Amino acid sequence: MLTLETFKLEWDKQFPDVRLRRSHFVLAVSGGVDSIVLVHLMHCLNAKCTLAHVNFQLRGDESKRDEQFVRDFATQFNIPFQVQVVETEKYAATYKMGIQEAAREIRYAWFGALIKEITTAENDRGQTDKLNALTAQPKPVVLLTAHHANDQAETILMHLFRGTGLQGLTGIPIRRKDLLNMARPLLNFTKDEIKAYATSNGLSYVEDSSNEKDDYSRNYIRNTILPQVKQIYPHVHENILATSQRVKEAEQIVTKTVNSFWQKGVKVKKGIRSVSIAHWQKVMGNATYTLGLIKPYGFNPTQINEVHKILTASNGAYIASETHQFMKWEGQIQILDKEEAGEFLVIDKPANEIATGHHLQNQMETFIVETKYGKLHFEFIEKIEFEKISKQSNTAYLDAGKLTWPLLFRTWALSDYFYPLGLGKKKKLNHFLSGLKLSPVQKSRTALLCTGDKIGWVVGKRMDDRFKIKSGTPLTIKISWQEMS
């Protein structure tokens, strides 16, 4: 049974980290019985609230009615009210998505913006209120929605019918602390309990006529499937919730085991995250393990079979999500961030100007430049001794007198060419790099140190012949590349 007392007990059990008197709550209020009951409960507990209503303009006069009802309800209980009126159909058409998806995106984007606005106001208040130590503390802002046990049962069935893993069978989370700080305090109460509370407390509310139509899969499950199942299993909602809780406990155990396995297998070397195919093959064919690896990188369960094919494909084969790419290379599956941009750093001449032929005494002889994937160490040397020159490819010796400052450190492009040291003629950089047998990731991260419109050094690979030093070179710049481990 839902009462103020049982609600408070459930709150203390589910949200020990959320203080009712020390938080500011944004309540998503449609005007239906669920959200109206939630507002009444929070009001009776003297919680600080702001009501947030979205008018999606999808039901004509009924949408206007709902907005006015919530506005009047907020006035009746003297609670701050915010409304967002949107053209949902136009938004859905513009971004080529369904009405339900568009409404959800609009709703949560606005809730997020509203939370930021209120958080800023709370912080400003905390800065100005110095009289009382308690009131000076800004209140954390938490979004509350009125999802209930029936919504949970419907969601779990939808996931089951579509195909899902363990997490899908756990349903709607009662608490979220990711992009939105959100709680759902009615999730363990049924629709009948919520309606009974409204009746006993004389609360009026509005009905959304679209809920009676079976235009959407959720409505069909709610209006047709569950009522028929309930005739056979009267406690269907409670049973689904109980099963969901047991699945959630099992899912936590499985997640811990799966994460432990991948923590041992996923390594980062030279800034590239990868997992060895040999390690992966220990659980080859196990969809739960594979999903545990790929899901954080934007892949979904329907892509598991395609991901498995990469393990036996040829070098360079890959599969991509919206955010990441899994690529096979030399016994590894490399995990790449698709948003990873190239680099473009301007390197200015040291503060104490160093000119060809000038003595370096009291001058800045060395400096370091940090880049995304390593460090460049610059050292100015007068009349270098050739027998002390390193032959390692991660070190370059350039004639300082031939350089134009500032230098430019940048990622290479297909149009680049240079004169490889010792070759005596120009070569397209793409062809040069291909001959080094680099992995696609290593090749994409190759950087250049440019002077004017010329390449002075393919960093860590080869100098340009035009900037080599000779026996009489008065001032040499030694540049060492230390790639991240």
Radius of gyration: 32 Å
Q: Looking at CATH, which topology of the largest domain would you report?
A: Rossmann fold
Mean pLDDT: 89
Percent helix = 25-40%
How much β-strand is present in the residues? 15-25%
Uncertain residue ranges: 353-363
What does this structure look like?
The protein is of the alpha+beta class. The protein folds into three domains: 4-241, Rossmann fold, CATH 3.40.50.620; 270-337; 344-483, 3-Layer(bba) Sandwich (Phenylalanyl-tRNA Synthetase, Chain B, domain 3), CATH 3.50.40. The protein is built from 14 helices and 22 strands. It has helices spanning 4-14, 33-44, 61-76, 88-94, 99-128, 149-162, 191-200, 217-232, 236-265, 277-280, 287-294, 304-310, 429-434, 440-444; strands at 24-28, 48-55, 81-85, 141-144, 175-177, 181-183, 266-269, 272-276, 318-320, 324-329, 332-337, 344-347, 366-370, 374-382, 395-399, 407-411, 417-418, 427-428, 447-451, 454-458, 462-463, 475-483. The strands form five sheets. A six-stranded mixed sheet has the order 3-2-1-4-6-5, with helices on both faces. A five-stranded antiparallel sheet has the order 7-8-11-10-9. The longest helix has 30 residues, at 99-128. It is elongated and about 100 Å long. The protein starts with a helix and ends with a strand.
